[in-house]
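Continuing the series of single-chain predictions for the mutant panel. This is the parent chain; the variants come on the following pages.
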Amino acid sequence: MKADQLRTDKKRVTINDVAHLAGVVPSTVSHVLNQTASISEETRSRVLRAVEELNYSPNASARALRQKRTRLIGVAVQDISSEFYARCAASILEEARKDCYCVLLCDAAFDKENLKKGVMTLIERRVDGLIFIGGGNDEEIIREAQNAGVPIIMGDRHFEDFPSVEFDNRNTVRKLVKLLWKAGYQNYTYASEPTKIQGNLRERYEGFLEGLRECGASGEQIRVVFDERLHKEKIKGSFQIFENLISQTEDKEGTMVYVTSNDLIAYGILAAAEKKGIPIPGKLAVVGFDNIQLSEYYVPGLTTIAQDEKLLGRNCYQLFKKVIHGQVQERHIVLEQQIIGRESAILPLDGIKESKGR
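Parent structure:
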């Protein structure tokens, strides 16, 4: 019987219809959809094609009762308006869709109370697991989720012994600073949001200090600017903060290099420098973080650190699947980052990837 006949002959397509069209037994369809047995790729593809052709929708409530699973996964992020977080969440959505999982998203907007309410709602929805992307200072919320029996995955961060996927922030920034020193930069300003909310920001700042210590920099050569405005209004806040501050650059010998925790903060500094007529990378150099799409095409091209947010999302989802099936072998995955050299801060060629972008 063909797919169009099955759709019209019955009010609701059943698992038996899918099995008939795919040429398998109903239990095989169940195993493919629920990933409860090893099925050949050829058979799996045949079953999924039949599911798509018939527009088959399993009875989620009944299946959840049988399996004690809802096929819902919760993802908590700090700021979904961020290109990095949005792409990471999209990657998780893409992977989950292949397995017929539904992703419920919680956006904290850098507010602990928002995060708590969102996570509690996800727990009430009986999600099969929670992925926390970024964040920090949220131990109480994580413990509540753990006490509720929800499997937890940490993304872009490390927290105690929870399974995690993270980037090597400290060592990458440490390496970046040593390359800047090798290039001849002697004066440094670190510009960032306060580090208390996000553990990855702390790692970047510690890598900055560690790199300068190893280079033998003195305290007079280092300036640090943390500001709450850089959480939500990165470009505007950065422009306002540094419009007058960068004028002090002209009083120093040599070039002042601004190392930032985010590309958007770097753009605010670049805009302020342009307004003041300060040449880049003459009296001032700027380094971003994230390598968002604009960074390659902005003039001057932004020297930055690239991290693959899609790879982060895929790894978080795959780790989630292993956790709920009890197959975890590697609990902590560390992903590499790439230093991208462009015109805003000239770096030695060794140890970096050049990207002119134009």
